[in-house]
């Protein structure tokens, strides 16, 4: 209320969260005192601010943590939360993640399939270099099409649904598997649990990996499962690198046992000790049947804005005493 001292402290923890202080200040409808720090660079600031915070927005923060008795909300401004260490948070704290990446990633996946079939970038580069190359309009390179192809979604959820909507519009067949038993969604030709993954691997022209990483999915696509794919089949991984066995996929790609892969999520990432590692211990970058991107399949400005609008709305819910959305864990 006007004239009343604001006691709720919002801590933006980490380099990415710190950048959004002004954005949140302009979006929040409730009163918060916004502080920001990077725990990796200024541990003293984190240890001073965290005990007073009612909400923290951030990702992974290394131990040790100070006691945070007032903390009601740990808001992750992205989707993954496999890094979370619940024991550092106080009882009653709710952990929420943020989606809003589904449409961006679905567009990336459709682009990947279209590029694989049509080869637009390679054709354009060749035409620039060679012009007509002695061939007329109906004699140029023949390319494929996605119409009639089958896309199999491993982990049919938020992303999978958006992929299915777009794939259907292109005349594709869509199949999917997930953890829960449920009737086949209208967008799918068939749906099964993970018990039917081998069937999906065998039927799909494109296998889209969109499930979360956990103990059940780590190494889910191993040598046997990759071996069940069509020899022309393509894996598209937008989930997590470790869902696919690193040795097995390199072997399958190098020896032509599958058609190719489009990989956006990896086994190795930059760190303090190695700021620019290769994303795999194998030389995938030397293979011509791999499209590689730096974990940016969903990274559009529109998606970033949608996520932080959601973060602001969840902070408002907490301030008003309402339950937050996207709760992944209550401590």
UniProtKB/TrEMBL annotation:
GO MF term list? glyoxylate reductase (NADPH) activity; hydroxypyruvate reductase [NAD(P)H] activity; NAD binding
Which UniProt keyword terms apply here?
NAD, Oxidoreductase
The answer, when asked if Oxidoreductase is one of the entry's keywords, is yes
Does the record carry Protein biosynthesis as a key word? no
Q: Which InterPro entries match?
A: D-isomer_2-hydroxyacid_DH, D-isomer_DH_CS, D-isomer_DH_NAD-bd, NAD(P)-bd_dom_sf
**All copies of domain D-isomer specific 2-hydroxyacid dehydrogenase NAD-binding, residue ranges:** 113-296
CC per GO annotation: cytosol
Q: Which domain of life is it from?
A: Bacteria
Instruction: Write down a Pfam family by its short name.
Output: 2-Hacid_dh_C
Q: What is this protein called?
A: Phosphoglycerate dehydrogenase
Q: Which organism is it from?
A: Minwuia thermotolerans
């Amino acid at each position: 209320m006007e004239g009343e001292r604001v006691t709720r402290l919002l801590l933006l923890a980490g380099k990415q969260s710190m950048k959004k202080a002004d954005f949140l200040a302009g979006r929040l409808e409730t009163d918060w005192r916004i502080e920001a720090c990077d725990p990796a660079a200024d541990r003293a600031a984190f240890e001073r601010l965290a005990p007073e915070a009612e909400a923290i927005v951030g990702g992974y923060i290394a131990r040790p943590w100070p006691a945070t008795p007032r903390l009601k909300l740990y808001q992750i401004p992205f989707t993954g939360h496999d890094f979370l260490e619940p024991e550092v948070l106080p009882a009653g704290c709710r952990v929420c993640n943020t989606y809003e990446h589904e449409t961006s990633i679905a567009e990336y996946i459709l682009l990947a399939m279209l590029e694989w079939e049509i080869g637009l970038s390679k054709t354009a580069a060749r035409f620039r270099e060679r012009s007509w190359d002695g061939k007329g309009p109906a004699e140029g390179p023949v390319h494929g099409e996605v119409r009639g192809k089958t896309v199999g979604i491993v982990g049919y959820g938020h992303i999978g649904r958006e992929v299915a909507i777009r794939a259907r519009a292109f005349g594709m067949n869509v199949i999917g598997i997930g953890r829960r038993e449920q009737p086949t969604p209208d967008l799918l030709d068939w749906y099964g649990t993970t018990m039917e993954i081998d069937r999906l691997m065998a039927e799909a022209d494109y296998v889209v990996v969109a499930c979360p990483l956990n103990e059940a999915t780590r190494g889910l696509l191993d040598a046997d499962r990759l071996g069940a794919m069509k020899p022309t089949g393509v894996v598209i991984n937008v989930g997590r690198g470790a869902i696919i066995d690193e040795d097995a996929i390199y072997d399958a790609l190098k020896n032509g046992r599958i058609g190719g892969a489009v990989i956006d999520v990896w086994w190795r990432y930059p760190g303090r000790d190695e700021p620019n590692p290769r994303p795999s211990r194998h030389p995938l970058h030397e293979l011509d049947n791999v499209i590689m991107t730096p974990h940016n399949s969903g990274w559009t400005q529109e998606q970033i804005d949608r996520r932080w609008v959601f973060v602001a709305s969840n902070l408002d819910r907490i301030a008003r005493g309402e339950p937050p959305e996207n709760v992944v864990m209550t401590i």
